Amino acid sequence: MTRFELLQLLVGQARTNGFEFRRWYVGKLGLPWQSARQAVEMLAAERRYYALLFSHEFASRFWKAGETMTFQVPTQSFTRRMKDGSIGTVKRKGYTRRSAREDAWLYHLKEMAAAEEPLRYMRRYLRVEDDLEEEAAVLVNETDE
Fold first, then answer.
1. Do the beta carbons of residue 19 and residue 61 sit within 8 Å?
2. How far apart are the C-alpha atoms of 69 and 19, rounded to whole Å?
3. Model confidence at 17, in pLDDT bands (50, 70, 90)?
4. Quick count: other Cβ atoms within 10 Å of Cβ 133?
5. Residues 63 and 57 sit within 8 Å (Cβ to Cβ)
6. Is the pTM of this model over 0.70?
7. How far is CA 141 from CA 41, 116, 138, 144, in A?
């Protein structure tokens, strides 16, 4: 998925929740409005998407207060002390998590600021067709074994 396509999906989800993209684009960036496609292309091409991602207006609409959020938690592995005193490696499969918080957008802004790649962080909160196909392939492989 390209940066442009990802930004288009992010803006689309926020607009569904009431985000006024045109007003934000003209007001915050001070650029003339031509079309939504051109605006997203400008954000993607000139790396101005950071202004969008960290905008309180965008974040508060993307993560609606009190709404149940669905996101993917990646596969993890770490070491820890076991009951018998030995050091072992724990491996956890990735899973889908659901959560509801009133100030979810503030939490996510903090997490996104700490993340190495904010767009990759945002990608976890989009359920797109590619993810569904990958999950179906994993389920088919697990049942074959």
1. yes
2. 17
3. confident
4. 10
5. no
6. no
7. 38, 32, 5, 5
